[in-house]
Input
Amino acid sequence: MADISSTFAGIRSPNPFWLASAPPTDKEVNVVRALKAGWGGVVWKTLGEGDPVVNVSSRYGAVSYNGTRIAGFNNIELITDRPLDVNLREIKSVKKQFPDRAIVVSLMVPCNEESWKTILAAVEDTEADGIELNFGCPHGMSERGMGSAVGQVPEYVEMVTRWCKQYSRMPVIVKLTPNITNILGPARAAVAGGADAVSLINTIQSIVSVDLDLMAPTPTVDGQGTHGGYCGPAVKPIAMRMVGDIARDRTCAGIPISGIGGVSTWRDAAEFMALGAGTVQVCTAAMHHGFRIVEDMIDGLSNWMDAKGYATLDDFRGLAVPNYVSWENLNLNYKIVARIDQDLCIKCGKCHIGCEDTSHQAIAHMKGADGLRRYEVIDDECVGCNLCMLACPVDGCITMQRMDVNQPKLTWKEHPNNPMRQKVPAEAAE
Amino acid sequence: MTHVPDIAPGRLAPEDYAKSFDDMAPPLNGRQAVIEASRCYFCYDAPCVDACPTGIDIPGFIRKIGTGNLKGSAVTILEQNIMGGMCARVCPTEILCEGSCVRNTAESKPVAIGALQRHATDWLFERDIQPFARQPASGRRVAVVGAGPAGLSCAHRLAQLGHEVTVFEAQEKAGGLNEYGLAAYKTPGGFAQREVDFILSIGGITVETGRQLGRDLFLEELRRDYDAVFLGLGHNAVNALGVEGEELSGVMNAVDFIAGLRQAGSLATVPVGRKVVVIGGGNTAIDAATQARLLGAEDVTLVYRRGPEAMSATLAEQEWAQTNGVRIKHWAMPRRLLGWQGAVKEVEFEYTRLDEAGRLAGTGETFTILADQVFKAIGQRFVPSPLTANALETLELVDGRIAVNEERETSVPGVYAGGDCTAGIDLTVSAVQHGKLAAHAIDARLRAVAAAA
Output
């Protein structure tokens, strides 16, 4: 039985599945239900200073795709709208009840040293395991100079991180916004400021849909809408790319990463971890299905690790990072072509029409007098793009077969068509 | 021993009739339709389209359901098959579109094309939308004989193409077998007439009911008075059993039982036997047997002379009858009907088998089934005599039905035919296609004549 306990930036939890700072972690009642359900930890919904914020009614929107609900999710909520002292009291209570779980507190206060210093002391008193700096919230708070307004400026990230390290003994996790051109800017700034870990991604600025009757973005508030933060299964690819960028970046120097963005299953978690994440944080899936989903996450991850022979999370964490390379390092001599298993083919023709209309005209459509259809790959035209394999509705019907033999690896860096190519040693000697 | 035939109406409690004859396949709701629509792969060169006699763009209409474009979906269906609503209810989809769905191969579960087609067409009908407009008037007039699926399909397309159409119908109502020949639970809520109303609402079509070819009107008159003629005459005779006792009371044609049931003001007035025997293996036999059960018959036995695969009723139809308590006996043929004081009492059957040459043969062994009522459903025929009487030319026949070429034209120039009076599989959907093809051929002919003039 695999050991899935986690130690992340010094914070221990029985499993790597944390609930992200969000509505599910806003109150003791929710958090206790989550921890009883088996979650390894929570990041308490973001605390602020002064009078609580005020939220609107009508807060969430979603993308439904082909009958599947909440393929993507979007919210226009702000940080906690409950008094600070109530939250602090509940955090302290929860930590006492669940000493083995990770209780991390998300924070967002104005960008001045005194504000941070004050709240850090109050949080430390709860005996929480760590803090997460919310530099990601893309709406409402950013317009007040907080959230992603800080996260988008690396100098601010570094400065605030440094204050937190200076005024707190707690591990500091810096939560990064994806609403930026290059995630490495703020990530490196967090490292420079002394962060113990980063977590990403926060939500992506979005208009999730337009109500064509009201002619307003959704969710609509009295006939109008605003941009919100996009999350859920649809954002996982964007999140994983940013996690991978940080994991392979030398300057970030292996800083622990808590992966966030569309994690719904143990498989999603395993993928984030293969790209270097130490823990994952979940929100949308729990909001869609309830806390019970963690049972399969724990069980599924453990069973998969057993099947693969991984005894601990560290055994496979980051294994995909060395294989996440720049395009210029890919082997241009690698050649594959599509192969259609005629016994599995159901004659839907999706491989043909996708290739014919939009790609390389490499799959022939044949139809006998008996009306029987047959689809065949034209090897000479096939560039090995995978489109047919991806469109084919039958698992294993279309596979890609390797065709290059005895060819040395050739990348763009050495390719003759590249005017900037590196001279290979033999050429250099001439 | 005496035998009092027990044939009586009102076997059910009055409130139970509606439930008994409720929709055999309840419609999909919006959510179910979207989920089912998402199962369609939107195939290229989709096999389901090939399998549809009317060539409906099935992936196209299903995709439109998925995007909420229900009007577009219904129009995609109806522009190929103006009776897409009825066909959604009565087509044997398991041997047509759904039978060829690629989902069968990997999952043995096709997309529910019929149910989706009903969803889209119901949506349009519920809103009384007329999506078709007529082309400018051609000044040409076409006579259509028979207001069944073939005739109405032909009339609608001709009207759409700008011609004026007169439809002559022998019965009191238009609709043909949709109105008179299908089980009530297949088309509840007066759908057959609603569809007729929809078809006629395009304009340019006059229906004259109670007008029968060979009695009230004649082919040579129609040829003289109209620019073209379409014959959608259907079947007009029922095959006889040809055995002793067929004349006994209590023995009737299944089609007459069904027509009586469909036209009854109240189902509680339709008499049905306590013990019923149905002879035959087609949809008419199934519809009669099942409806006899639903009216409260105690024992209903359907007897067919061959095995289940040879029945022209599909396996789904057979299962439907069995689910409703009809007993199906295969491999037996009627030898004689025995009566008492003029009323049928029992039916004697002989077991059958295939001989060495693969021909059907009796085994010599017999059995009898008690019966208060016997429905004959061993097939219907087309009898051409009304056409030939007083006709100047004689229509060529093939296997007893009107011969037509690929454009549905008969041996008599300007006279076209389709549906059950011509060769081919006897389905609503085929009849609709025949009418449509004939309409286009007639249109081309009339325009060519106009151009030459």
